[in-house]
Amino acid sequence: MMLRAEFTTEPFEGEGEPPAHALAARDCLLAAGLDPDFGPLGTAISGDREQLLPALAEVLDKALAAGASRITLQVTAEDDRV
């Protein structure tokens, strides 16, 4: 099953370099061999369920450890039967 996830980490820090918690989240996905769409207001990622779910658990752990105070996550199952 293919999944699509979108998440934001807070607090937002305005202009300049992304905050450490956002970079930690992105780096977890890269380390898992995924290709995230990383942006200033959030990150989107698609992948196979078996690969993406463990990576998202790591994202939550590492982002919180790096200073995130809130993580908003949305996961959608994509219909791969089309």
Could you please describe the fold and organization of this structure?
The chain has helices spanning about 20-30, 50-65, and strands at about 1-10, 35-40, 40-50, 70-80. It is of the alpha+beta class and about 80 residues long. A 4-stranded antiparallel sheet has the order 2-3-1-4, with helices on one face. Strand 2 (about 35-40) and strand 3 form a beta hairpin. The chain is globular and about 40 Å long. The chain starts with a strand and ends with a strand.
Q: N-to-C terminal Cα separation, in Å?
A: 12 Å
Low-confidence stretches: none
Q: Classify the beta-strand content into a percent band.
A: 25-35%
Overall, the morphology is globular
Q: Which radius of gyration do the C-alpha atoms yield?
A: 12 Å
Global structural class = alpha+beta
**Mean pLDDT across all residues, rounded?**
93
Q: Bin the helical content.
A: 25-40%
- Biggest sheet strand order reads 2-3-1-4
H/E series: EHEEHE
Total DSSP helices: 2
Largest sheet: 4 strands, antiparallel
Number of strands: 4
Topology of helices and strands:
Layout: E1 2-10, H1 20-31, E2 37-39, E3 42-48, H2 49-65, E4 70-78
Antiparallel strand pairs: 1-3, 1-4, 2-3
Helix pairs in contact: 1-2
